Inverse folding.
């Protein structure tokens, strides 16, 4: 089983990178100060400090580079790193500022875990800080010196979680936007189909009207024309009224044709 990290955008990625750089600077400062003090005051312990811190840094960098490791491997990593820090705090002269390394691990916990696991590990780190400092310094000074690393163990994971939540909200909004765009295209396609169907129905209606009214009128005109031809031969006196009737039929047909043409024109014209 592996952790599925959230896909981080460029802005969130820059925020994460800024936090990583700050932590590396802090880590370098702690390790540099520690090695300088040990090399000056306790040179016999320098190899132990140097070896332990090199192992810590190498493992820390590896997990920062590949934080999509299996969950079991990650838990083992944090156990081993915690042991290294406790060992460094145990070595004389019991340098209290080494517990800042727990803050680095808390930041990593926020990156690699989702859900309760990160808070369980943060609680473990805070407990180790309290127990070790109180053991070496007493309750009053132990609590006083533990406030800063404990605050770091809380603030840095919260910082990472806030970035992740913001990114999850952005991803969800992007998904909703894409779904809305798809729905919009579907509605446009449906509207186009409805418009096509309406156009076809309108043309069919006009065709029926053309057949029912104009065709009938034209047929009447043809009959009247034939009747006028017959009357012209048999009774020319009756041709006049028939011509007037023919004129009326022609005007009616013209009006109906104009009406149909107007209906056929697009509405925007």
């Amino acid at each position: 089983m592996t952790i599925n990290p959230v896909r981080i955008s460029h802005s969130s990625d820059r925020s994460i990178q800024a936090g990583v750089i700050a932590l590396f600077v802090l880590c370098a400062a702690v390790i540099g100060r520690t090695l300088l003090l040990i090399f000056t005051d306790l040179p016999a312990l320098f190899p132990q400090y140097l070896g332990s811190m090199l192992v810590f840094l190498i493992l820390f960098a590896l997990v920062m580079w590949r934080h999509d490791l299996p969950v079991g491997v990650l838990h083992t990593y944090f156990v081993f790193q915690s042991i290294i820090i406790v060992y460094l705090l145990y070595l004389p002269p019991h340098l209290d500022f080494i517990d800042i390394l727990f803050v680095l691990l808390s930041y990593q916990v926020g990156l690699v875990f989702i859900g309760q696991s990160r808070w369980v590990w943060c609680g473990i780190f805070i407990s180790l800080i309290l127990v070790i400092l109180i053991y070496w310094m007493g309750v009053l000074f132990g609590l006083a010196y533990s406030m800063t690393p404990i605050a770091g163990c809380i603030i840095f994971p919260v910082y990472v979680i806030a970035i992740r939540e913001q990114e999850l909200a952005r991803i969800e909004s992007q998904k909703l936007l894409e779904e809305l765009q798809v729905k919009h295209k579907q509605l446009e396609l449906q509207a186009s189909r409805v418009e096509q169907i309406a156009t076809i129905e309108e043309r069919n209606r006009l065709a029926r009207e053309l057949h029912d009214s104009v065709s009938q009128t034209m047929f009447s005109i043809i009959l009247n024309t034939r009747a006028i031809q017959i009357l012209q031969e048999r009774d020319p006196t009756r041709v006049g009224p028939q011509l007037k009737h023919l004129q009326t039929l022609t005007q009616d047909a013209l009006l109906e044709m104009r009406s149909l043409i107007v209906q056929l024109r697009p509405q925007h014209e």
Q: What stands out?
A: DSSP finds seven helices and no strands in the chain. The CA atoms of residues 20 and 107 lie 8 Å apart. Residues 179-264 form one domain. The first helix runs from residue 10 to 41.
